[in-house]
Amino acid sequence: VFCMRFLFHFVLLLITSLIYTHLAGQNFDAGFTLGLTATQVDGDSHGGYNKAGPLAGIWVERKLTGFWYGRLELRYAQKGSYKKSSPEAATFYRIRLHYFEVPVLVGYKFSSGFQVNGGLSIGYLSKAEEMNELGSFPEDDLNAFKKYEFAGLLGLDYIYNERWSLGAYFSYSILPIRPHKGNITYRLNKGQYNRVLELVVRYRL
Fold first, then answer.
1. Are 30 and 59 in contact (CB under 8 A)?
2. Cα–Cα distance for residue pair 158/116, rounded to 1 Å
3. Is the terminal CB of the chain with fewer CB neighbours within 10 Å at N or C?
């Protein structure tokens, strides 16, 4: 309850900031993000970026110095894993993880119109779903997912015009999102991790 209340107030604050920075100017920019994720969960024994999901958010950006800038974003991103059944194997598996995230990025603008961004993101897991051909997994398995995710984020944007830009990003969990069953570890592998490719479109107000 506390986390949802915090997210609600944070959304209101960020929306207010979007309006204020748009009206006030002074090296601030703001806008909206819409995109698609292609994800997998490392450690679930199902490889490949087979799980697609939506991504949407709002952002505030400020010039730091020269061609450097900082960006703060609030967004929803669906992550997880997917393995569909086939004529050879009737097995089916899917994880859906619904995150509200706050990425904090630092970027550099090139004169060619490209931008390189990198930073960290903290995500709150609002809902987890896991199922196979036999049905949904028990709550004990779902409760093992950690409520917070800390991830690294790296990406490249191309400024199409003064309003629109296109971006491609890669993110990976810094800490496990869920331990292996029995808390088994394999050297540096402490559990399961989100691996995410993102394709996004940004609109600047």
1. yes
2. 9
3. N
Q: CA-to-CA distance for 59 and 187, rounded, in angstroms? A: 38
Comparing CA positions, the residue from 46, 139, 35 lying closest to residue 77 is 35
> Which is more confidently placed, 20 or 74?
74
Q: What does pTM read for this prediction? A: 0.84
The CA angle 16-158-174, to the nearest 5 degrees, is 70
User: Quick one: which H or E segment has residue 39?
Assistant: strand 28-42
Q: SS3 for 156?
A: strand
Q: What is the pLDDT of residues 113-172, one digit of tens each?
A: 999 999 999 999 999 999 887 878 878 778 889 999 999 999 999 999 999 999 999 999
Contact at 8 Å (CB) between 195 and 154?
no
Cβ pair 15, 171 in contact under 8 A: no
Q: In 3D, which of 72, 17, 19, 79 has the Cα closest to residue 49?
A: 79
pLDDT at 181 over 90: no
Sign of the alpha-carbon dihedral angle for 170, 71, 123, 163: negative
Query: Letter for the amino acid at 107?
Result: G
